[in-house]
Amino acid sequence: MPHFQIKLLEGKTEEQKQKLAEEVVSVAQKVLGYRKESYSVTIEDFSWEEWRNEVYPKDIAGKKDVLYKEPGYKI
What is each CA distance from 70 to 15, 38, 64, 74, in whole angstroms? Predict the structure, then answer.
């Protein structure tokens, strides 16, 4: 079953996160199929320091083999 992990800089509202999760699932259904009940989504908030020291090196730069959309920035 598809599961999406979303990592954000802190500061987004719960309403924004809920809408994002709904939209991700909606688009995924159009592309991949599966029923809505098949999907799950987690959203984690990170400070800029955590992003720079943990998220970017480990989950972005460190996973080039599975990175399907590179960011337009470098840290």
Answer: 26, 27, 8, 10
